[in-house]
Amino acid sequence: MFNASLKQLSTQLAEKKISSVELTKAFLQRIEARNTEYNAFITVNEELSLAQAQVADQMIAAGQASQLTGIPIAQKDIFCAKGWLTTCGSKMLSNFVSPYDANVIERFNQIGAVNIGKTNMDEFAMGSSNETSYYGPVRNPWDVEAVPGGSSGGSASAVAARLAPAATGTDTGGSIRQPAALCGISGIKPTYGLVSRYGMIAFASSLDQGGPMAKSAEDLALMLGVMTGFDARDSTSLQRETEDYTRDLEKPLSGLRIGLPKEYFAKGMSKDVECAVEQALDEYRKLGAEMVEVSLPNSQLSIPVYYVLAPAEASSNLSRFDGVRYGHRAKSYGDLNDMYRKSRAEGFGAEVKRRILIGTYVLSHGYYDAYYIKAQKVRRLITQDFVDAFKQCDIMMGPTSPTVAFNIGEKSSDPIQMYLSDIYTSAASLAGLPGMSIPIGFGDKNRPVGLHIIGNYFTEAKMLNVAHQYQLVTDWHQRSPV
Ligand code: GLN
Questions:
Q1: What CATH number is given to the structural domain containing 267?
Q2: How far apart are the first and last CA of the chain?
Q3: Is 175 in the pocket of ligand 1 (CB under 6 A)?
Q4: How far apart are CA 125 and CA 175, in angstroms?
Q5: Are 223 and 245 in contact (CB under 8 A)?
Q6: Residue 244 CB neighbour total at 10 angstroms
Q7: Domain range holding 14?
Q8: Which atom of ligand 1 is nearest the CA belonging to 125?
């Protein structure tokens, strides 16, 4: 049951072989038994989960079920969920019980999915290793000495350890794809604007995008169908026809042109990762795809550009939390200012403070043009590179992460090394393009390797097709560490 696909679970529920309450209890017990080892969940609430499971069973009995009705889904603790503690991995929100649902949560509730718990994450989604969480580091189920990646590390760890059939994540510069790669699972960050950011606590609003994390591409397709759709409460939400993301899964890949950005294969990637990527590309050749060399000349600037723009947006977003926590007690403006300062000093961890410092600096008078405006211009060039390259190919591939999972503590004192974890993922984020990671084998110390698949705008169905066809002929996605 713990290894079952979403489709299999759905069939078992429909055929009444198991009820949602039974399924939910089974996963809650598994979390209870194993979460201390992985620290993948911040909050588990049996009462709330079982109440949802009961509603799901009624929907199934009444013939109102859709495919994910009654299935437990782990929710990243960045999504506000009514009645649930919603911390975003921060002390700042450690007593915040959300009075409302994020759009993503609403969508899962509407179809009768069960929230099985809120997953651990880097504080305010800032990190690549899940070590910045106020709730302590998450461990990688393949090796508890290793990080799970971040910032959606709790979700990745939970799915890999089979503590949940699937989970949600968010990705600003790589936070769905990198932890998916490091934990040996599948994850997709959709085109910017497809998933509403309403109630999804902001990190960098022009980059943040929610998406699913699961065992397989087929599971991702079902999850994505629930998560996407127009929402007037998010001003960047896109108004588009609803899509069935499973529609192209079975299409053969013959004639598919896979672009290999030469900059992603040049240097930086470790030998074991390179080896697994080459083998995966061979598999795609066998499936009838042809490889085309493409170039993304400005992509080497994506990390510096990202670390100007993301902190700039974050520093503006985060100032609101000071207001939430202390603002109402202020008697004067000076008073308020003191409170803000105190709140920042006490409420945020070191990485968040570093980002606020960078963000405030690049937005300040005298530096704004040199850093912020300059970064916006380079962002445009990075985007244009993709537009040009997609004239020669249908999809792009490369490594998701330059290395397999590193050890807890290995990079936490070296921000630059940590930031370089997203060297392959941040360019697609800056361009607003969809990106995905699927498991393709194991590297050093038997730790998982992920393949990065970048699609053109709105080609999620094609990307899922490309991933699914690979998963039909390989079994990496079915391996589990426990
Ligand atoms: N690792 C990157 C950062 O620390 C990206 C995080 C994310 O995508 N949320 O900002």
A1: 3.90.1300.10
A2: 13
A3: yes
A4: 8
A5: no
A6: 12
A7: 1-482
A8: 9
* Ligand 1 pocket member 21 (CB < 6 A): no
Q: Taking the alpha carbons of 87, 88, 93, 97 in that order, is the dihedral positive or negative?
A: negative
Which tokens hold the place of 161? 């350890």
> What is the count of structural domains for the chain?
1
Angle at 158 (CA atoms; ends 466, 197), nearest 5 degrees: 70
Per-residue pLDDT of the chain (482 residues; tens, 9 = 90+): 999 999 999 999 999 999 999 999 999 999 999 999 999 999 999 999 999 999 999 999 999 999 999 999 999 999 999 999 999 999 989 999 999 999 999 999 999 999 999 999 999 999 999 999 999 999 999 999 999 999 999 999 999 999 999 999 999 999 999 999 999 999 999 999 999 999 999 999 999 999 999 999 999 999 999 999 999 999 999 999 999 999 999 999 999 999 999 999 988 899 999 999 999 999 999 999 999 999 999 999 999 999 999 999 998 888 766 555 555 566 777 777 777 777 777 889 999 999 989 998 999 989 999 999 999 999 999 999 999 999 999 999 999 999 999 999 999 999 999 999 999 999 999 999 999 999 999 999 999 999 999 999 999 999 999 999 999 999 999 999 97
Closest ligand 1 atom to residue 421 Cα is 1
Element (H or E) spanning 261, and its range?
A: strand 257-261
Residue 156: which of 169, 145, 174 has the closest Cα? 169
- Residue 204 has which token pair? 């960098």
- The whole-angstrom separation of Cα 152 and Cα 187 is 10
Helices 302-326 and 350-363, interaxial angle, to 10°?
Answer: 110
CA-CA distance, 189 to 431, in Å (whole number)? Answer: 12
Phi/psi for 437 (5° steps) reads -130, 135
CA distance 253 to 286: 10
Amino acid (1-letter code) at residue 112:
G
Residues linked to residue 170 through DSSP beta bridges, in sequence order? 210
Q: How far is the CA of 60 from the centre of ligand 1 (A)?
A: 39
Give CA–CA dist 133/196, Å, rounded: 24
Of all protein residues, the one whose alpha carbon is nearest to atom 5 of ligand 1 is 173
Which helix (H) or strand (E) is 421 found in, with range? none
Residues with a catalytic annotation lie at 76, 151, 175
H or E segment and range at residue 205: none
Per the structure block, which two tokens stand in for 329? 């007690």
Adjacency order of strands within the sheet including 395-399:
41-43, 114-119, 72-76, 166-171, 209-214, 186-189, 435-442, 448-455, 395-399, 257-261, 290-294
User: In angstroms, what is the span from residue 125 Cα to ligand 1's centroid?
Assistant: 6
Q: Which atom of ligand 1 sits closest to the CA of residue 152? A: 9
